[in-house]
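Components:
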Amino acid sequence: MLPTPNLDHLSSKDYEQIYEPSEDTFLLLDALESEITFIKNEINPCICLEIGSGSGCVSTFLGQLLGNNSTVLFCTDINPNATSITVETGRRNSIYLDSITTNLTSGLLPRLYHSVDILCCNPPYAVTPHEDIYSKNIIEKAWAGGINGREVIDMILPLANDLLSDNGTFYLLVISDNKPDEIREKMWKQYQFHSEVVISRLAGREKLIILKFRRNGRNIND
Amino acid sequence: MRLVTHNMLQCHVRGCNVNNYPLQLSEVEIEIQETEFNSQFLRSMIRKLEWSALINSAREIGITTLPEVLPDDFDEDFLRNIHRVLLETHIQQGKMTCPNCNHVYLVRDGIPNMLLNESET
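Structure:
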């Protein structure tokens, strides 16, 4: 078991600005760790991308699993506090993270079209009123997912199709309220992505689930 | 921001769809941070780069050591040079200007900011 990245540099003051790593974050870490043999042997990633990196905990951990400088780890977040904390979390754990302040992947496509080998995302998944996804409160924006908690997730799904390399894999954290079966069916019908549940865990009232998506074999054209 | 990141960034102002790449670098502050050399990773990464964009951008920040044309064989010297330019050269501060619409994106404390105002998206 690889230890969780050291986050001692973060204080409660930082957590007023960024999403504090929690059960969901740790489940994503556990999923990546359980997948590491597959990731190393089957994917041998060159480019990794995390959408909404927050504290940077997930990409730092992925960097530790893969070994520093064996991949490039792009991290995006719409919150400038998060992108700078992402870099700092990496640095404290001897992992270099290429952090970019942007909305989802704006500015990175089309260049990263079909180039990302590992895509991961812990999206804003909480069920909230629609308007909350446009909240001016940056911390609310980090978890507010709108109707069924699906509104931001549904913006990310087509991006996954644009971004993933032929051999690429997408790890997405969802909760049962997000209707994971419907997400999987949608990804299959629209993009012929295979999917599976990597791991799931109850956290209070919520069932947290890590979904894994892959293209239907190699050399698929849109 | 390293040049490996800059090589992936493109202007996304609404309606700006041609000649919007690479973003032109100016007023840059550079810092070199040494990091472990990994030739296997570099070999795969080079194939994902827009080479002509990289040599142009490198030139804009005063690096003239890259060959115009990507060689067929990557020898150790070439890979060491690429490693330096791509992974160890950090743009800490600077401006990135779209060659088409002239929109300026800033790099502050090593992080590019690609956010636009609502009117620009």
